[in-house]
Write the structure tokens for this entry.
Amino acid sequence: MRSDISPGQTSDYLGFDLVMDDNLPEPSVLLADHGYGSDKVRENMEARNVVPFIPMRKSRKLRIAVDRTLYRLRNLAERCFNKLKNARRVATRDDKTAESFLSFIDITSIRLWLRHLST
């Protein structure tokens, strides 16, 4: 898992380059929400031979099909974020520094992973 922090008012696609940094293993599929539906993101993924499954915005002129069955797997990631936010310290972002906030996200992630292993 990779975590980083961006300003709250920043759009999703501006953080895309950080998430898809070159030092990570290359994915074969990108499951993302409407925020990543820009042409730039789609072109970047297709240049890397990654299949983007990103639903279109209603205002998009060029219609692009999405495999809904595969896209539903994105729900697993959304549930993970929900479980992370069950830790009040993560949900309220009360930490003074980004470093301490990211550290607590890592600790919470490890706790969730260990809980998953024990079941």
Observations:
- The radius of gyration is 16 Å.
- The longest strand covers residues 29-31.
- The chain has a mean pLDDT of 79.
